Amino acid sequence: MKNSLIILFIMILAIQANSAILVVEGKFQNKNIYVQNTYGGSGVGYCAVEVKVNGNITTDECNSSAFEIDLASLKLKYGDKVTIEIIHKDFCKPFVLNAEDLKSLPTFELLTMNVDADGLLKWSTKAESGPLPYIIEQYKWNKWVPVGEVSGVGTADVHDYSFKISTHSGENKFRVKQIGLGSMPKYSSPTTIISLIEKPNYALNKEGDALQFSSETAYELYDDYGIVKKGFSKEINIKTLKKGKYYLCFDNQITEFIKKKR
Q1: Between the CA of residue 127 and those of 107, 111, 155, 212, what are the distances in Å?
Q2: Boundary-marking domain end, from 195, 212, 238
């Protein structure tokens, strides 16, 4: 009996010495994980040797060309952290077919959203299923423009968030969104405020190598092929730009101008 235990121990050490571990992590999304197995590096037997979930060995049968890791049988709750370890032989590697099914989905429910007197966009949510970032967007220049990002907590409880915004003249719209891997974005309803700041003007300087605004403003400058400059300033240096037509987005306006010389 003693000799049998020693032989078993030696065999385990031999397997461990010639194996590697494939680790996949995420959150339980009520879906099982599927693995495409390969033959071992020597061409004998299959690559995967053993599967662990959250440190515990599973009963999944991995001695086949494809197998399922049955997470549903492990009494996991939706959103629980999952760490899968697939112990496999050297010189081969199994392939996880649906690792994205462990990634969080954008499930938040917006409770409130407003802009306070200090220029803070504030919103409250519940029912988050994972720590996805909130992307803050502002509607201007006939499109939704990303203006910042705040990390989401990622649990189902109520959470409060805030972000310091910059407004343009007139009507301002803001919203937040989350994007999960391989899924469509989820958007909040927008909130609207009216800003009383003065609408800026712009002009080319005498040398024709700079655009000057009457006050600091966010801007994007395009040619026919895409964006060439963007930022927040009272002046844009265009000295190095080629001659031709350009499209200027600033404040909440869109216009165009011709650069006549290099």
Answers
A1: 6, 10, 7, 47
A2: 195
